Structure formats: structure tokens, C-alpha cells
């Protein structure tokens, strides 16, 4: 019954009648996904069922996917890249790694999703949004007699040494957004002093952006710097996680989608792109408890999702910090001045 429902839902999103559904696979699609694994799988299988198109899905973090798309530029293997922070998508667009496409679904989207497309000459588009913050394991905080953090600068306190985890900004879009956010909040000089101070308290730099809060949920880490919706997911799952919107203000992401330049299955990539912007496809997020804010205005949003209107958001400069030059410069500076420091 569930399989039938998803099939009908996907068909409606593509404007297909039941008779129009293919009896056998209508070609292939190679799909790179940078969202959570279960969401990636659900999107792939639902699109397959809606269209008969055979989907080959690979899940990697946004930074890793960008690196893969760049490495494959002379012989592209992927068709469409869905999910992950928008900065790497913008960099890929600037470097000519993705194709412009204007979907007929754009009229159903929030302005911020269209703004993302405008920033990249229509080579990417916003599919969801989420605010940056952190979460902490309430039980571990109490067990270690640690104060409750409320601000970014609280994380620099010496008593948190070995209790904080974030991803590596070279591999993780979440962590790059963190670096760019801190620089915009405090200015570059003070921002890098903050990152150096934070480095002293970091117990591990993970590859994936959501890994720090998953570790906190399992009791292996106390504080994880992540997008707030990832912390909410752990809390809803029953783990003792408390979510923090830092008092100074914070950055946010526009999760994005792009068609890879030279896609071998371009028409199928466009079909996926249109389908992924539909309210039906975006509402699938509820099935895997993904708490981002969807870009389609008619999509259902969980009441547990962070209320972006109640969070102090900075005016995040996507054009600047999504540019190839600025991203490379900041990452090199972080590599040279922060990651090499003793802990």
C-alpha cells in the first residue's frame, strides 16, 4: 500500500496519469546526493517508482560531492546533484561544472530559492533552508558539571576542552558555512581568532556535517556544531539533545540542486529536477524526519522544524562566500592557521 501511494504521489508531481507510467525502465539517472542517507534513498526510490527511470544514487557530503564533480569534469559520470549547502553548488556553477536550467516549477517556490538561482545564472536552485547552530547532550553536560552554552563564544571556554565536535570545512558544507558565518559575524581577524580558540576544544573534525550531533546523540560527544534541523532530528528520535540558536546571531544554508554539465542523461536529469521541486516530492521529507524548511511554498513542514523567523539570522553573503576564489582562500587560511595548531 505504501509503495502504491508513493508511486501515485510521484506521478502527480510529474503531471503523469496512471496510463502514462512506463511499463519498464525509461532510461537511467546517476544521482549525487548530499543530504541525509535515508532522505537520499527515499528520493531515489520515489522518483524511480514515479517514472520507471533507473536511479543510481551516491551519497557524499557537499564538499566531497563538489570535489568529485570537479574531478570528473572532463568525463562527467553524474547527472544531477541534489542537496547539501548552497556554497559548493555556487562554486560549481562559477567554475562551469553545472548546467543552467529554468524549471517550469519555479513559480511555486519561495523567493530565497529563486534568489539562489539568480546568483548562479540558473545553474543551481534552492530546495530547502536551515539555520546553523549547535546541540548538546544534556546528560553529558550535567555529568561533566559543564555550564549550559547559549552563544558561539561560550564554546571557547576552557572547561569545554575535548567536548566540542565539528566537521572539517574542506569536506563538509556545514563546516564551511560555520567558518563563513563566524567570519561574517565577528570580522575576519576576530573570526579566525575564534576558530583558533575553538580548535583547542575540538575533540574531532569529522568528514560529514551531521556526524557531530549524531555522536552527541550516542553519548560519544557533548556538543556538536551542526545545522539546527540535524540537532532537532536527534532530539525527536529520543536522544537527550538540546538545540541552541547562538545568541550573537547565526548563518544559514540554502540547500541546493544542480544539473551536472555534460550529463549523460540530461533529459532525465531535468525530469528529476522538476519533480524534486514539487510540493509532493518535498513533502516526502516528513517520512524521514528531515526538518529543513522546503522551498516549495505549498509543501508541508513539520511543526518541529526550527522557526527561522524566530532566529537571529545574519545577512549571509552567498555570492561572496559561495565564490570559488573566496572559498579557496578561506579554506587555505583555515588549513594554514587553524588546523595545524596543537590541541
Question: How do the strands and helices of this protein lay out in sequence?
Answer:
Blueprint lengths: L1 H12 L14 E6 L3 H15 L2 E6 L2 H10 L8 E3 L3 H9 L3 E2 L11 H9 L5 E13 H6 L20 E4 L5 H14 L1 H14 E5 L4 H7 L5 E5 H9 L4 E4 L7 E9 L5 H11 L2 H5 L9 E2 L23 H4 L2 H14 L6
Protein architecture, described:
By secondary structure, the protein is of the alpha/beta class. The chain contains 14 helices and 11 strands. The N and C termini lie far apart (54 Å).
Summarize, please:
The protein is α/β, with parallel strands linked by helices.
Highlighted features:
single chain; 14 helices; 41% helix; globular
Q: What is the rounded Rg?
A: 20 Å
Overall pLDDT: 92
Global structural class: alpha/beta
Number of helices: 14
Total strands: the figure is: 11
Portion in helices: 40-55%
Strand percent estimate: 15-25%
What about the largest sheet? 11 strands, mixed
Cα shape: globular
How far apart the termini lie comes to: 54 Å
Uncertain segments: 1-13, 15-25
Strand and helix order? HEHEHEHEHEHEHHEHEHEEHHEHH
